[in-house]
Design brief:
Elements (H helix, E strand, L loop, with lengths): L21 H6 L2 E2 L6 E2 L4 H11 L10 H23 L5 H11 L5 E5 L2 E5 L2 H17 L6 E3 L8 E3 L12 H19 L6
Antiparallel strand pairs: 1-2, 3-4, 5-6
The chain binds zinc ion (ZN).
Organism: uncultured Quadrisphaera sp
Protein name: Zinc finger CGNR domain-containing protein
Pfam families: ABATE (PF07336), zf-CGNR (PF11706)
């Protein structure tokens, strides 16, 4: 087989879903926002992967470059709303418009089958479903407690549903353990125990 006829192996990002809300999970596809931003929606296939990994759709949405641009625009509008909530500010009207415009479109269609749910729709439908999750989140009569991960660089935002609202990290593996280990090492250095 010549290289031209080899099947293309699609390398897709393994997305993370730790925010407790679909819209906040989309916000998390731009990592390390304040230090060294890392784009997890770099190509349309990344959006396809996000939609199926999130369970928004069970089939690929076959995103275009335009859909990718729309997804990032929605994501930044959602980030603006979440940021405003965290800071106790009023939401930016332009960001609200972007979210409402996405939510106004036809959402993903769920269908029950003997083998579970089949969810089909285009990329705009998947973004509509995501935007609707944001409307539910921000309009809830008792505003759920939003938090930003306690690891400074992380910048992931999540809904804290833990008992007593004591959740500090987006996830223990990626952030909690690392921060605790760094603090432990720092304590050892301070007490002159490093290297012993
Ligand atoms: Zn984190």
């Amino acid at each position: 087989m010549s290289p031209a006829t080899l099947p293309v192996k699609m390398v897709t990002v393994a997305h993370v879903f730790v925010s407790g809300n679909l819209a906040l999970d989309l916000v998390g596809t731009l990592k390390w926002r304040t230090t060294a931003p890392e784009e997890l929606l770099a190509v349309p296939e990344d959006l396809d992967a996000w939609c199926t990994q999130a369970g928004v759709t069970t089939e690929p949405v076959r995103a275009t470059e335009g859909d990718l641009a729309d997804a990032r625009r929605l994501r930044e509008a959602l980030h603006s709303l979440a940021r405003a909530r965290l800071d106790g500010r009023e939401a930016d009207a332009g960001a609200v418009d972007v979210v409402n415009a996405a939510a106004a479109r036809e959402p993903v269609r769920p269908r029950l089958t003997p083998h579970g749910a089949v969810r089909t729709g285009s990329a705009p439908a998947a973004l509509s479903t995501t935007a609707r999750a944001a409307v539910d989140l921000f309009a809830a009569p008792e505003a759920p407690l939003l938090k930003e991960c306690g690891r400074y660089e992380c910048t992931r935002i999540y809904v804290d549903r833990s008992r007593g609202a004591r959740r500090t990290w987006c996830g223990m593996d990626e952030c909690g353990s690392r921060v605790k280990m760094a603090a432990y090492r720092a304590r050892r250095r301070q007490t002159g125990l490093a290297g012993r």
